[in-house]
Amino acid sequence: MNITPTISKMPPAEKTLNYSRLREEGLKYIEELGSDFWTDYNEHDPGITILELLCYAITDLGYRTNMPVQDLLASREQNEANLRKQFFTAKEMLTTEPVSELDLRKLLIDIDGVKNAWLFKSKQTLFFDKKENRIVGAKPLPNHAFTAFDLNGLYHIKIELDEEPIAKNCDEDTTITEEETNALQEKINEVISRVRQRFHQHRPLGEDLIDVSIVEEQEIRFCMDIQLETNADANQVYPQVLYLLSRYLSPAVRQYSLKEMIGAQKANGTSYTMDEIFNGPVLDHGFFKDEELYNAGLRETIYGSDIINLLMDIPGIRSIHHFRMNYCADPKSGSNEWILPVSPGKKPGLCYCKSSINFYKDVIPVKASRQPAVEQWIARLQAERAASLSVTYDDYQYSEGTWRNLDAYTSITKNLPQCYGVGDAGLSPSVPFSQTIKALQLKGFLLFFDQVLANYIAQLNQLKHLFQIKESPIDAIETGTYFFNKISDVKDIELLIDGYATMDEAGGLLAGLVNQYDNVTDRKNRLLDHLLSRFAENFTEYVLQMYSLEGENAAEKLVTSKALLLKEYPGISAKRATAYDYFNSTEDNGNTVAVWDTINVAGMEHRLSRLLGIEDYSRRGLSENSEEGMFLIEHILLRPDIHLLQEQDGLFEPQNFIAVCSGSDCDECEADAYSFRITVILPAGAERFKNEDFRNYIEKTIRLETPAHIYPRICWWSKESLAAFEPVYKNWLELKQAGEDVTPEGLAVLQQLIQLLNERKSIYPPGILSDCDNPVDNPVILDQTNLGNLKT
Predict the structure, then answer these.
(1) 770: pLDDT strictly greater than 60
(2) Which of 96, 400, 621, 790 is deepest in the core (most CB within 10 A)?
(3) Are 622 and 726 in contact (CB under 8 A)?
(4) pLDDT one-digit tens code per residue, 4-19
């Protein structure tokens, strides 16, 4: 059906595009303001002509303003690259570091050589001696009451290798040689190493990895008689039966391209939204469907009814009789018709060589060769594997706009009739000089309108820089928030504007006029508040704290703090629950992973630093110059190695364990001081941290930003305590990264670190008794003020 484009007879919805409406509004103002001396409102009147011209100019501005957003953001050169600076992409903003078992499995299965992966809780038991009120590594004496508890957050990972399926011949010897065994073991070690590296690069806060191993396969054999339809081909049905049996025992985990995910539908018939597609960590080899990952868990039980239902969906199968299943390695244990349990921690596999699958049409047996069926089945598995390995994790591409030359401006003087004498032609040389002066006066009057309109267009053209997020220049000192254009191509304009040649330069006439109205710091703060609100970030309470501390001087610092948070937001948002990498000494690209003087810190530290205006969030010494910063210590990493304690006879030594209660810093005693517990240490002597209200705000922020399942202990340490702590902590970090923390030397350093954490106490600014006549900065408040011990 052809649709002929037409011009609508309806007036434009936008007032700025409705010329008639603008002219009508203008006439109302003229009548109100000039009715005493202006009685002619007809079209021939020069005032009406100027009004109509200005109305037309405003419709031009309205047209430009209502252009598509992508056109407003477009650039004449490097349009695609500049567009990428305007917004964070879906890959940057919608993804997150792993926060669930499913996320961790995605990361691990994405590794080359891993077909599937599963996480299991690793058991490590400690004991709380109720009589001694402390943790020990073994059961206390019989006359001591105790509570046993298992540490949480420790994992054992089992992986399935991604090997190309091969259609072996069941009648041939498949014993592998010693060389093949060694090659396989080398491959296993390499894949396990990559799994460890990947886990620690993305390790969740308060969690740790104990071991990685290859999942053991438990093969299952099946016996059944299949009744076929009259026109069914047994040689076509057989490979489909093998395929469905293998996929039931070990469900497929495929990775899809972005195009496939956009076109796919969920089980309920709905399409995937963009945030569902990009949910989870950034991968290398495409996207997972969450429901497929859920279904690809290790089966604990095999149900014959499920298998029969699957097989009955194969075209050509009429019915299934005499269904049996059993363990391939133990056929004497008896047959199981409906339910067959799988050994814990093992993956069921199809034992097709010992399976017996027979086909019938009525009572007549139908021959179907096993080996061709096996080869077709394996070929299908190989094709699926190749398709999964070929995809990549692509980013969503935004549509580019068309550059419209938004700031191009033509003076309204060029559109008045020639008789006005304000255009390029000017007046005839024969007219009196007084007429020339009047024409210049009119031109000067119209230049006010010209400048306002030109500045509007300049502001519109600069929106792409004001709202630019990546590499944003907004926090630069020289960047303003109001913009202007210099009027050009107006005849004799130099006679009307003193200093016209330099009026648009820094310190020129236009800059001086605009700067009178451009409260740069205030407008930048409001603009950054808008941009941050897109990500549900609120700086209101921090702003109030900063103004309370520094008054009006805080405004510029707030711009810097907000801009830093905005520029680094993808990492700050995605990694907020991620721990630091203590395992890897080098990154995938070969760069060194440091543990001191480094930004290799927990994502929570990075985020807290930006929310609290701490510019340097690296792990470094804080004691010398009373710098702002923090140390975040995960208690799970301070757990002692039980085997080492047994060798050292240290299972009952208190210096090997974190104290359950540490004096006044602990209100309630819980047996487990390791699982999902962190300690945040801050320098009490930093200038802003001496303010009690700001301290309270910091503590509140830490508790709000800590993941809900983790309990933070917050400590304010003196310069002396930090000076004692930092070399011990640095030494322990280096031993931890080198894998030497489970040595006698590592245990000795751990004991020093635990002693400092157990014994060092928080210090507070001294409270001062105050009255209404003589208020002080830190008054004593009932039930809120600590006895101060901070030396100032």
Answers:
(1) no
(2) 96
(3) yes
(4) 788 787 878 788 889 8
- Could you tell me how far CA 466 lies from the centroid of its own chain? 23
Upper half-sphere CA count for residue 188 (Cβ side, 13 Å): 13
Neighbours of 261 (CB within 10 A): 21
Sign of the CA dihedral running 38, 43, 45, 51: positive
| Strands 346-350 vs 125-129: parallel, antiparallel or unpaired | unpaired
pLDDT in tens, 119-149: 999 999 999 998 888 999 999 988 888 999 9
Interatomic CA distance for residues 749 and 727, integer angstroms: 10
* Residue 373 domain flag: yes
Helix/strand/coil percent split, the chain, to 5: 40, 15, 45
- Give the integer Cα–Cα distance in Å for 596 and 622: 12
User: 500, 520, 540 — which closes off a domain?
Assistant: 520
**Count H helices, E strands: the chain?**
25, 16
- Cα–Cα distance, 73 to 230 (Å, whole number): 66
Asked, for residue 563, whether it belongs to a domain, the answer is: no
Provide the phi-psi class of 362: left if phi over 0, else alpha when psi is between -120 and 50, else beta.
Answer: left
Distance CA 582, CA 200 (A): 7
Q: What is the dihedral of CA 604, 606, 610, 615, to 10 degrees?
A: 150
**573 class by beta-carbon count within 10 Å (0-12 exposed, 13-18 middle, 19+ buried):** buried
> Does an H or E element contain 214, and which?
strand 208-214
Q: What residue numbers bound the domain in which 176 lies? A: 93-214
Of 535, 90, 536, 111, residue with least CA distance to 278: 90
428 and 378 belong to one structural domain: no
Mean pLDDT of the chain: 88
pTM for this model (two decimals): 0.87
Q: Read off the pLDDT of residues 190-246 as tens digits, 9 standing for 90 and up.
A: 999 999 999 999 999 999 999 999 999 999 999 999 999 999 999 999 999 999 999
Give 41: exposed, middle or buried? Use CB within 10 Å, 0-12, 13-18, 19+: middle
The DSSP code for 426 is -
Residue with tokens 């040595």: 743
Tell me: do 442 and 456 sit in the same domain.
yes
Instruction: Report the alpha-carbon distance of residue 170 to residue 311 in Å, rounded.
Output: 23
Helices (H), 462-576: 463-466, 509-515, 520-533, 540-550, 554-567, 569-574
**Packing angle of the helix pair 234-249, 304-311 (nearest 10 deg):** 140
Cα–Cα distance measured from residue 390 to residue 387, given in angstroms and rounded to the nearest whole number: 5
For the beta carbon of residue 441, count every other beta carbon within 10 angstroms.
Answer: 12
Closest CA to 249 of 162, 106, 352, 370: 352
Phi, psi torsion values for 502, nearest 5 degrees: -115, 15
Tell me, yes or no, whether 333 lies in a domain: yes
Is 106 a member of any domain? yes
Question: What tokens does 134 get?
Answer: 């402390």
Residue (of 67, 68, 63) closest to 12 by Cα position: 63
Number of domain units in the chain: 3
List Cα–Cα distances, 473 to 406, 478, 481, 526, 560, in angstroms: 21, 9, 11, 15, 11
- Asked if 641 contacts 742 with a C-beta cutoff of 8 angstroms, the reply is yes
Count of other CB atoms within 10 angstroms of residue 424: 11
